[in-house]
Known about the structure:
Layout (H helix, E strand, L loop, with lengths): L3 E6 L4 H10 L8 E7 L19 E5 L5 H9 L3 E4 L6 H6 L2 H20 L4 E7 L22 H20 L3 E6 L1 E3 L8 H10 L4 E4 L5 E6 H14 L5 E4 L3 E4 H11 L7 E4 L14 H7 L7 H14 L1 H11 L14
Parallel strand pairs: 1-2, 1-4, 2-3, 4-5, 5-6, 6-10, 7-9, 8-12
Antiparallel strand pairs: 9-11
Helix pairs in contact: 1-7, 2-4, 4-5
Amino acid sequence: MTHTRILVTGGAGFIGSHYVRTLLGPSGPPDVSVTVLDKMTYAASSSSLDPVRGSDRFALAIADICDPVETGRLVAEHDQVVHFAAESHVDRSISDSAEFVRTNVLGTHVLVDAAHRHGIETFVHVSTDEVYGSISTGSTAETTPLSPNSPYAASKAASDLIALSYHRTHGTDVRVTRCSNNYGHHQFPEKLIPLFVTNLLDGKNVPLYGDGLNIRDWLHIDDHVRGIELVRTGGRPGEVYNIGGGTELTNRELTHLLLEACGASHDRIEYVTDRKGHDLRYSVDWSKSHAELGYTPRKNFVEGLAETVAWYRDNRDWWESLRERAALPAEENVVGAPAC
Ligand code: NAD
Ligand code: TYD
């Protein structure tokens, strides 16, 4: 049997760790081994990888994707790359975008360049629907021109274009995924759902931006990971695949569901100053992923949300220290990262 060595960048983060636990779990393919390449920024959680730490098909390399020497060495030892590593929180990109440009743009360039030089079989670049910008009606297809608004979205759009340029120029097998807003267990408590749930569990209020009428499409982490695996194993080189969740809600509607799930009253909502340049709505058309790869989101949102709330209720140990960490500046939160 052919054995595939996969380098997973950002594998200690929310989605990357779920991908790794799934690949090396009981339903994962038997013929893969995984090395996580992660800088262990404030957003990483070492314990999210505990379930796979004992596997002889798992290794962890603490490194920065912007470091060409270490990244090149690791890429050379692998057959495929699945690239999650990024600065991922829009609000942080508004207060300071330098690290977003460094990791998301420069880091992706270092990685895809190494992939090209070492003849990597397949490079899956995990991106976001935010690169298409805000749309008030309809859904964005893979062919929709990019129109990112936040520094986060702009840095992801730049990274998509750099990655795809290596396919067009050098023939590197690059595949890009663009998903909607993920939710589920092990998500760092700064994004809406885990922030609001942990606030409510701690008896605090929840800060709803502006009028709360911005719309997001919610994608369960299991569906996203399945979509990425379909792209890695069955996607076509040089192609982009949208991965949607199928549940569009205003932030206000979502907050009411969260209040209900946590048994909290409506007076816990605190309407606060809106996010600068706040995108009104994202919605991806995932019919290409469905037609080519058989992708369909399966998780019922109400069930998925109830399971997520229950997980945070039962796993305080996981998130309490992360909440303290979230308050610190990024440079105080990095473990063992070489300079770029
Ligand atoms: P996350 O913030 O939870 O994790 C990011 C991981 O990348 C962390 O483990 C961090 O330590 C690592 N990292 C950051 N900078 C690094 C560097 N320079 N070198 C090596 N590792 C580095 O992010 P997430 O929510 O899991 O998102 C993963 C990917 O999915 C990102 O590329 C993000 O843009 C994309 N995405 C996320 C969502 C979402 O809803 N969370 C939606 C669309 C797309
Ligand atoms: P977020 O989880 O940060 O994801 P993204 O900005 O990438 O979509 O935010 C989801 C939505 O929730 C977005 O419209 C902003 C809003 N929001 C709040 O209203 N309050 C908050 O404290 C946060 C973090 C987000």
